[in-house]
Amino acid sequence: MKILVLGSKGQLGLCLSDQLSKTLHQVTYASREEIDVGEFGSTQESIIGINPDLVINATAYTSVDEAEKDKESANLINHLAVANIADICRELDCLLVHISTDYVFDGNAIKPYIETDNTNPQGVYGISKLNGEIFIRSSGCRYLIIRTAWVFSEYGNNFMKTMLRLGANNDNLSIVGDQFGCPTYAQDIAIAIVTILDRFDLKEITSDIYHYCGDESCSWFDFASLIFSEASNAGWSTPRQLKSIKTAEYPTLAARPANSVLDCSKIFDNFGVSPSDWRKAIKVVLSNRNAN
Asked: The pTM is what?
């Protein structure tokens, strides 16, 4: 199978490289330098030239707070560029796997969100990601949209790496304890995608939305606490004290959903893909960073 991975130098893109290297697929990896999805004409020319069976779109404008100040850039990458990619995939009759986010929900639910729950994003980032989803679904291309949350790994910028950096230089840290979600290991997202592709013929996949995230919900404070516990066991410098604070005590430009826990039963029922074991993944990331 000919696969094109867009956003190959991002966190998920690098994990896709790790996992797809173990397969027999013919994969082209394109970073922003190779294919700038914000340039519609050159993107179309490049993708048509590659003529893939499958496009995995791992590109995104992910700076949630910066999006509030730069709506144009967020909309360009998360919505308009996605619309262009969807149109190209329809023209080529290739499958589009697109990564979306828990931020399409408002966070007011009292139970995990399922794929058919009403969306109601509260900030520019979530709105731009939802608009990208909406266009894909109306474009006529064949697609899988995978919503995920709280992504971390060995690569890129993420919460775990930020905690390790801050923990090495601060005796006391305050972490928000009233926002709840499911941490997700980016390698597990990549494995889930590979599993789906290997299990079904591309022509038989029915276009749909799926949720994929960690197997257990927690707060940011809980997540940080386990990171530091495992880091301490692995010999890392960690803060002496962690304090749980409320969202109101840590104001940000963009509103964060208070409860963005996703229900992953649909992707398991359809493809046999189990949720991400993020507790185990913390140990794996620490081990890999120590090795490097």
From this structure: 0.96
Q: What are phi and psi of 31, to 5 degrees?
A: -85, 180
Q: Are strands 180-181 and 218-219 parallel, antiparallel or unpaired?
A: antiparallel
Largest CA distance in the chain: 57
Q: What is the pLDDT along the chain (292 residues), one digit of tens a residue?
A: 999 999 999 999 999 999 999 999 999 999 999 999 999 999 999 999 999 999 999 999 999 999 999 999 999 999 999 999 999 999 999 999 999 999 999 999 999 999 999 999 999 999 999 999 999 999 999 999 999 999 999 999 999 999 999 999 999 999 999 999 999 999 999 999 999 988 766 667 789 999 999 999 999 999 999 999 999 999 999 999 999 999 999 999 999 999 999 999 999 999 999 999 999 999 999 998 776 6
* Residue 218: other Cβ atoms inside 10 A: 21
CATH tag for 2-157+182-215+262-277 (out of 3.30.360.10, 3.40.50.720, 3.10.180.10, 2.60.40.1080): 3.40.50.720
DSSP 159-212: HHHHHHHHHTT-SEEEEE-S-EE--EEHHHHHHHHHHHHHHS-GGGPPPEEEE-
Q: How many Cβ atoms from other residues are within 10 Å of residue 138's Cβ?
A: 10
Of the candidates 125, 143, 210, 212, the residue annotated as catalytic is 125
Dihedral of alpha carbons 11, 195, 270, 90, sign: positive
Task: Look up 29 and say whether it is catalytic.
Answer: no
DSSP 220-244: HHHHHHHHHHHHHHTT----SEEEE
